[in-house]
Design brief:
The protein is α/β, with parallel strands linked by helices. The chain has a single domain, classed as Spore Coat Polysaccharide Biosynthesis Protein SpsA, Chain A (Alpha-Beta Complex). It contains nine helices and twelve strands. α7 packs across α8.
């Protein structure tokens, strides 16, 4: 199965570089990376250019003009660019644990999408945190007792435990999700009516449920470390909540302002 990572980023080149380093250190490498750039400046382009040269997998850069938070739109462009059978959505400030790609591959299943988990790196630790801080059992244990990692219970990797299957929206977050590309195309990807932070991932999950999928999750597999950042502007959240409520009430699974644009 060919696996593509769709990685969103916006003007955090140092974080992006560390996430790319984490992907190069995986137990199972991704087959390609598509960087979904929500309008970053030249510093990010420099990091991407170096990643393209470094390998060991193809790296593509998809960019659009900065007109505020438009994660749905840039993810759709990156999905359209991707060539994998399976798509992992990862944010450019979420450093993957060493088995992240291997675990997503193992947990992929027809009729499901996968919702991953994250650990929260404290503000004080985030500036220095990189993949090497958690690449062995003993380093993870040290982190666990450092008091600087939120949701630290996810630190353990227990692949023999079964995944949890549900149709819940609790904890849906596109910083760490996995989908078969065919399913994303069937529902037409993310809904670009969502601008500003919030709910575009939950709305996608609702439409995937309406399409007939269920959600898998696992508290101890496919984990990433989320670097601290200031809270995003949430002024659009009430509008986005209304959009989500309307889609939940309608039961539709196909959005008309997605990867393919339609006025029908």
């Amino acid at each position: 199965m060919k696996l593509s990572v769709i990685m969103t980023t916006y003007n955090r080149p140092a974080a992006l570089q560390r996430v790319l380093e984490g992907l190069r250190g995986q137990s199972r490498l991704p087959d390609e990376i598509v960087i979904a750039d929500d309008g970053s400046g030249p510093e990010t382009a420099t990091v991407v250019a170096k990643a393209i040269q470094a390998g060991p997998f193809p790296v593509h850069h998809v960019w659009h003009t900065d007109r505020g938070f438009r994660a749905a739109a840039i993810r759709n462009k990156a999905i359209a660019k991707s060539t994998g059978d399976y798509t992992v959505s990862l944010d450019g400030d979420c450093i993957p644990e060493r088995h992240f790609i291997e675990d997503h591959t193992r947990l992929a299943g027809r009729g499901f999408f996968y919702q991953g988990r994250r650990m929260l790196v404290s503000r004080g630790l985030s500036a220095a945190f990189d993949f090497s801080r958690a690449d062995t059992f003993w380093k993870k244990l040290k982190l666990l007792f450092s008091g600087q990692i939120g949701n630290g219970h996810h630190m353990a990797r227990l692949p023999w435990l079964p995944p949890i299957v549900s149709t819940s929206l609790d904890g849906v977050m596109s910083c760490n999700m996995g989908f078969f590309k065919a399913d994303l195309l069937a529902v037409n990807g993310f809904n670009e009516d969502f601008e500003g932070w919030g709910r575009e991932d939950s709305e996608l999950a609702v439409r995937l449920f309406s399409y007939g999928l269920r959600r898998k999750s696992h508290p101890f597999m496919a984990i990433c470390f989320h670097l601290w950042h200031a809270e995003n502007d949430r002024s659009k959240l009430p509008d986005n909540d209304d959009l989500l409520a309307n889609v939940r009430a309608s039961g539709i699974y196909y959005c008309h302002n997605g990867i393919v644009k339609s006025n029908v």
